[in-house]
Amino acid sequence: MYEDLRKQSAAELTSMNFPGYAIGGLSVGEPKPLMFEVLDYTVPLLPADKPRYLMGVGSPDALVEGAIRGIDMFDCVLPTRIARNGTVMTSSGRMIARNAKYADDFGPLDPECSCYTCRNYSRAYIRHLLKADETFGIRLTTYHNLHFLLELMRNVRQAIREDRSLDYRDEFFARYGIDENSKGF
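The structure corresponding to this sequence follows.
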């Protein structure tokens, strides 16, 4: 979180002319506003014509905010980890598919999603699989979460191309239920 050390590191690393650059140490429990502040002063120090990678970050809000700030690549266990526990990302926010209220819900995990899981399986069936400890349930929720994030990033890229990234962010955050006090996933 030390700006002077980030600047020194960026200067030394960019002088070595690597094919790309990683930013780390920002997904270890610090508040999201602090992570975004560090990105605000670190990303401009890295070459814009080379890939910039934010290590260990994968919540929807961090992906959107990072991309807006110039990050090109991310990686994180979040979508698969929460899927193993029955939590899925949907267009209207996080959903816990294991919850009893989905026992008789024959709709898709996310009515706006076109993934294999949402096209072929109901919330009730996925809940049954998860409650019965069937690994197929974990596969379906994992597939859905990965598809969700891939679609999110496709939409972010399109919004950036159309010069409406901030509007897209605000619209997505409002629908997903993200505010400055949420964890973002």
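The helical segments are 3-14, 32-42, 60-68, 78-84, 116-120, 123-131, 135-161, 165-176.
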